[in-house]
Amino acid sequence: MPLPAAIRDARREFFTTSAAGLGGLALTSMLAEEQLLSAESSTIDKSRLDVRPPHFAPRAKRCILIFLAGAPSHVDLYDPKPVLQQRHGQQPPKSLTDTVRFAFIKKDSAILMGSPRKFPKRGESAMPWCDLMPRLGSCVDDIALIRSMHTDAFNHHPAQLMMTTGVPRFGRPSLGSWLTYGLGSDSRNLPGYVVLPVGRGSSGGVSNWTSGFLPSSYEGVVFRSQGEPVLNLNNPPGVSRKMQELGLGAITTLNQQRYQLLRDPEIASRISSYELAFRMQAAAPQLIDLSSESQETLNAYGVTRPEPKKHNFRGGGPHVYQQFATNCLLARRLVEQGTRCVTIMHASWDHHSNLTDEISYNAGMLDQPAAALLNDLKQRGMLDETLVVCAGEFGRTPLAENRGGAKQNTGRDHHPFGFSLWLAGGGIKGGQVIGATDDIGWAPVADAVHVNDLHATIMHLFGFDHLKFTHRFRGLDVRLTDQGGHVVNKLLA
C-alpha cells in the first residue's frame, strides 16, 4: 500500500475507533460505580479532577471572578480625582500624550474630563466609595481596593487575555483552568470550572476561559441560567436513558483495548467529559432551579428586580439586571457544591460615549447582586475560603474621547497605564486601599501592581508558589506568570 494511503487509513481508524469508544468507556466507569459491573473491568484512569494538595496550606479554596469586560472607568467608580475635576476641559501635558498610543483619541485636540461622581467614606475603614454603588459600599471593610493596576495591552481582546491568561495572545490556559488543574474539583456532578455569561459577548470569547495547552478537562464550561443549563446536555428526543446505556455498553466491548493501546491524554479528557455530562444531566437542572432558595435570598440578590429603562446604549440586551443577579446567586450555589472556579462574564463596559448614563446603568446592575454575594458567602461561613475578584481588562482615560472631532465629548478611551479592581475573601485583608495613581488617574505613583503580580498573589492564596507551579509543554516548563510577577504581600490577611 502506498504510504499516503496507509497514513490516511491509519488516521481514519484512529478517529473512528477512539471516538466510538469514549461513551462506552465512560459508561463502564459509571456502571462500575453503581456496582453493575465488576471493578476489574473498568479501564478508566483516575479522574483528572480529583483534589490534589497544593505546595503549602491555602487561604482560598474557591474563586469567583466577576469580569467586567470592556473596562470600567476607574476615575468614575474607584479612584476619585478632585484635581482632574478642577482641570476639566483643559489640555493635558504633552509629556503624557506624546509617547503613548490611543485607540481613538486625537492627541492634538485632547482635553481632560473630570467625573461628576461623589465618593463618600464608607465602613469602619472610611474607604472612599462611589455613590453609584452604595450596597457594595456597605461591604468595604471586607474589600481590598487596588488603585495602581497596570497592564501591557490597550485593545480589548489582548487585554482580556492578559487578565485571564497572563499573556496578551491566544493559546494559554486561563486562570480558572490553572486553578482546576492544580487543585482539581470537590464536585463529582458539576464541572470544576464554570462560566456564567450575561449580556453581550466579550471580544475575547471562549479564549478567556480556555484550557490552552492543558488537557481540555480543565476548560471552563458555559452555563445558562435559563432553559437547558448546558447546550446539548440532554439526550435527543426519542432517546431514553436505557437506550443510551445499551448503545454505549455495546461500544465499550469494542473499544476498551484501543484505549489501553493509545492512552492519548485528550481521549482521557473526553472520557472524563462524557462521565461528567452523564452525571450533569441530573445535577445541572437542579442547580439552576432556585425554588429551594428563600424569598429573602432572592430579594437580596435582586433576582426579580425590574429592569431599568435604557435607550440605545450598551448594557447587554433585555433582562440583564435579572440575569446578572441570577448568575451571582448561581456562583454561590456552584462553589457551595464544590466547583473550584466560577467566572461571571458581563461584557458591556466599553464606554466611548454616553458615559454618564451607561456607567450608571452598569453600576446599578453590579451593585446589589455583588454585595449580596459577599454578604451571602460571609453569612454561610464561606467568604474566608472563597476569593472574589471584580475586574475589567484595563481602565479608561482621564481624557475625553474626541473621536472624529466630535464637539461633545461624552466618553473615555482605553487606558492600560493605570486602573482599579477589588478583591474580597479568600485570605484577602479587607478595608484597605492599595496603591495610588497621580492627580489625574493616569499612572501608578505608589505600589504599582501588574496583572502578573495579581496572578502571582492569587496563586499564593491558593497555596501555590507561582514560580514552581508549572506544566511541561513542548519541552518547556510553562507557568501562569511566565512574563513576570510577584506576590503583593499587602493584600494578604
Looking at this protein, list some descriptive labels:
two-stranded antiparallel sheet; nine-stranded mixed β-sheet; 17 strands; globular; 493 residues; 2 domains; 35% helix; alpha/beta; Alkaline Phosphatase, subunit A
What does it look like?
The protein has 493 residues and is α/β, with parallel strands linked by helices. The chain has two domains: 3-46 and 240-277, no CATH class; 62-228 and 294-491, Alkaline Phosphatase, subunit A. It contains 13 helices and 17 strands. It has helices spanning 3-33, 74-77, 82-86, 94-97, 134-137, 156-165, 175-183, 241-262, 265-288, 295-301, 320-336, 355-379, 451-461; strands spanning 62-68, 121-122, 127-128, 143-150, 193-198, 221-222, 341-346, 386-391, 395-400, 412-415, 419-424, 432-434, 436-437, 444-446, 449-450, 471-473, 476-478. Strand 13 (436-437) and strand 14 form a beta hairpin. The longest helix is centred in the N-terminal third of the chain and has 31 residues, at 3-33. The relative contact order is 0.21. The model is unreliable at 6-46 (pLDDT under 50).
